[in-house]
Amino acid sequence: MIQDLLTALALLLVIEGILPFLSPRGMRRALFQIVQHNDKTLRTTGLVTMLAGLLLLYLVR
Fold first, then answer.
1. What is the largest CA-CA distance in the chain?
2. How far apart are CA 22 and CA 28, in angstroms?
3. Which InterPro entries does the record associate with it (predicted)?
4. 34 is in which domain, residue-wise?
5. Cα(61)–Cα(58) distance, integer angstroms
6. Which of 8, 59, 1 is nearest to 16 (CA)?
7. CA 11, CA 38: separation in Å to the nearest integer?
8. Is residue 59 part of a domain?
9. Looking at residue 6, what is its pLDDT?
10. Which pTM does this prediction carry?
11. Number of folded domains in the chain?
12. Residue 61's pLDDT band (cuts 50, 70, 90)
């Protein structure tokens, strides 16, 4: 169980690092646009992302 959790964390870090590595300027622009959104929009986006992740996890497992 702990090995699966650490594997998932490692993959998350790899995926999170791809965009800043390949396009730091694009990443900076994207972050600037994210900062412009209000809290409700960010919270809704986070909820939708978590639900999509749970659905994908359910389908894979």
1. 39
2. 12
3. DUF2065
4. 24-61
5. 5
6. 8
7. 29
8. yes
9. 95
10. 0.72
11. 1
12. confident
